[in-house]
What does this fold into?
Amino acid sequence: GAVIGAHANLVSGVHVGTESRVGDNCVLNPGVVIGPRVKMGAECVVQANTVIGSAGFGYVWSGSQHVHMPQMGGVQIGERVEIGANSCIDAGTFRPTVIGDNCLLDNHVQVGHNCKLGRFVILCGKVGISGSVEIGDGAIFAGSSGAAGHISIGAGAKVGAKAAVTSDVPAGATYAGNPAVDFGLHQRMQVMLRRMARQKN
It folds into this structure.
């Protein structure tokens, strides 16, 4: 039941799962795995060894062990999306994980199940987004940053390198640190720490 669009280029070693669609003029590089129920829009580029639509990391405790919940939602990817090498986008549980139009994902990026990315979102290398996070249009995550699950990142927000976001980020805000806070507050905290360190010496 898989459908491959016109002029799509699937290089050697690509796998496309059942009920999935690869849009017109897409390029899937060597070793790309597209799981079941993945819908990819036109003109997308996926670099080598990336996996889209693998089972999301969802478990429930039975009383004696962790039991994996079925992850049947698949993934929905917009048009003109670029996804770097060795990245993973998990399938949603009951609804699809969503990557909006014109998003750019760097190498070694993880997007958890049920996440929803708006348009023009940028996730730099080694970013990790936990499950059920919503990211607004134009938001940017710098390298090795991440977000805890079930939070909202506003449109146009910026998250600094290695920052760990654990709560909602307002639209247009810039956050940094671990745990991440408003960038101005983070800078003041760093100044105070340096002053305290000098006083100790």
About this structure: The chain has one helix and 28 strands.
